[in-house]
Amino acid sequence: MARISDNAGPARKRSKGDGEDDMERVALAADWDDISTGLRKDLGHQLHSQWIKPIQVGDFDAATGTLALYLPSEFAAEWVRKHFADRLSLAWKIARSEIKTVAIEIHPSRKRMADISLGDSRRPANDGPDLRVVSDGGFGDPGFSSVGLDASLTFAAFVTGDANVLARNAAQRMAANDKPQFSPLYIKAATGQGKTHLLHAIGHQFLAAHPRARIFYCSAERFMIEFVQALKQNRMIEFKTRLRGFDLLLVDDLQFIIGKASAQEELLYTIDHLLSEGKRLVFAADRAPQALDSVEPRLLSRLSMGLVADIQPADLELRRSILESKLTRFAPLSVPDDVVDFLARTITRNVRELVGGLNKLIAYAQLTGQPVSLQLAEEQLTDILSANRRRITIDEIQRTVCQFYRIDRSEMSSKRRTRAVVRPRQVAMYLSKVLTPRSYPEIGRKFGGRDHSTVIHAVKLIEDLRTRDADMDGDVRSLLRQLES
Ligand SMILES: Nc1ncnc2c1ncn2[C@@H]1O[C@H](COP(=O)(O)OP(=O)(O)OP(=O)(O)O)[C@@H](O)[C@H]1O
Questions:
Q1: Ligand 1 pocket check for 359: Cβ under 6 Å
Q2: Given the CA of residue 286, which atom of ligand 1 is nearest to it?
Q3: Same domain, 272 and 163
Q4: Would you say 245 and 214 are in contact if contact means Cβ atoms under 8 Å apart?
Q5: Rounded Cα distance, 472 and 485, in Å
Q6: Can you tell me which atom of ligand 1 is nearest the CA of 157?
Q7: For residue 102, what is the DSSP state?
């Protein structure tokens, strides 16, 4: 039995018709209680209590089919819109067919406070908050052959490095003219590492070769929403016919496939049907098929039966190449090498933040007429930089290098001069210079009190060896990857 939630919307003055309104609010609160409980199971306690629990159910506007959900701050509202809008929308649509749209907003009382503190007296009183409204659309719409493909996300714009070469090659094979050697292709990567980019690129390339091809790109949540709507509106036959008519199906964010066993079953039948017709299927998710939550075993086995291709976090070299490739678009604006290097070294969490940081910096420089410099980057990107700054310590470097070369930790400070320990020590000194802000003398002190000239010599030597000796370069790359991940 559903309980009435504490979060039953903002206080209002009582007026005529409040009896009916109250009943509606009680019913909404009861639905919310159920939805919130379901989300707690899906998301886990921590995410739920941080983002879902603070939500208050606002008013439902029957004329537009819009339900307002309130959060205590614009930041929280923005976060919830970005990460949970589709989930919330889906859950509400399943609970109540009359809800067409869910609007995630800052609580009206907080909104007024925010306006007052901004001192914006010119703002009209009824000027609503910045909304992202989740609305309908998708493959129920006519003209879906190229729906949702972003023109900028092509193979030409995708920079390849060690971290993503397997996924890129697999994606290109999937888009190639001849019959695919595997299907489905399942692309797995952490957030912001280029999964969506590759999905769109496949779509573009396939469409270029087959202009009449029927392609559909959607998120797993969109699929679920479409399914539930078709079910409620008795449009299942039309839904199935359309779905099974695609030549290329691209399903993104599969980790959000939730609940509804019948929708998963429909996806399973669609996969079987399209595969038996030799059609192409591509899925992307932030985890391996086996790690998807509440997905039924038969669907899991279909997802894993083709090729599962990983994209690893972009390493330093790839991050630098991505920045350089983006920069060609901004010519003639010049971005000094030290700034590119700084961004590539500092913004390590994901490519989305890296590209976002560069875009922000350039936009600021263009708008203010200031040259791009290290100082400007530090000033303008404080949030991104501090979120990314995981200080790598010299101790951590020494430990990682010793494990890598299988030598005892004490050798970092010892006076032994055999090659088996000297080279790892020099590599560790080099990495300390590259990955930490420490000066040569400071590094020397951490290596058994060595002189700064010894450190300078080590850094130059390893730099030089990396250009001449592929093994050494490979070792250093691998260590950089370990330390930066
Ligand atoms: N190798 C790359 N070359 C060029 N741009 C890239 C590359 N990888 C990612 N990007 C860019 O980074 C941004 C984020 O990539 P994308 O949206 O594809 O990530 P994602 O893995 O789908 O993330 P999420 O799981 O959060 O949806 C996009 O602007 C994309 O173009």
A1: no
A2: 25
A3: yes
A4: yes
A5: 20
A6: 4
A7: E
Q: Whose CA is nearest to atom 10 of ligand 1?
A: 194
Residue 11 located in a structural domain? no
List residues forming the annotated binding site for ATP.
192, 194-196
ipTM: 0.99
Residue 319 Cβ inside 6 Å of ligand 1? The answer reads no
**Residue where one domain finishes, among candidates 269, 291, 310:** 310
Residue to mutate, 188, 193, 292, 329, ligand 1, most ligand atoms under 8 Å from C-beta: 193
Say whether both 306 and 199 belong to one domain: yes
> Residue 111: which pLDDT band, with cuts at 50, 70 and 90?
low
In angstroms, the CA 424 to CA 395 distance is 14
Q: Whose CA is nearest to atom 1 of ligand 1?
A: 159
Q: Which domain holds residue 440?
A: 394-484
Assess whether 167 and 300 both reside in one domain: yes
pLDDT at residue 409 tops 90: yes
Instruction: Report the pLDDT value the prediction gives residue 121, as an integer from 0 to 100.
Output: 30
Query: CA–CA separation, 275 vs 280, rounded Å?
Result: 7
What single-letter amino acid sits at 202? I
Rounded Cα gap, residues 285 and 303, in angstroms: 11
Is residue 10 assigned to a domain?
A: no
Residue 117 inside a domain? The answer is: no
Are 210 and 290 found together in one domain? yes
Instruction: Report the separation in Å between the CA atom of 189 and the middle of ligand 1, taken as the mean of its atom positions.
Output: 10
Residues 179 and 303 in one domain: yes
pLDDT by residue (tens digit) across 325-337?
998 876 567 899 9
Query: Does the beta carbon of 158 lie inside 6 Å of ligand 1?
Result: yes
The residue that leads in pLDDT, 485 or 111, is 485
Check whether residue 159 and residue 306 sit in a common domain. yes
Which amino acid type is present at position 214? R
Q: Give the type of residue at 376.
A: L
Both 288 and 325 in a single domain? no
Residues 222 and 195 in one domain: yes
C-beta separation of 52 from 39 below 8 A: yes
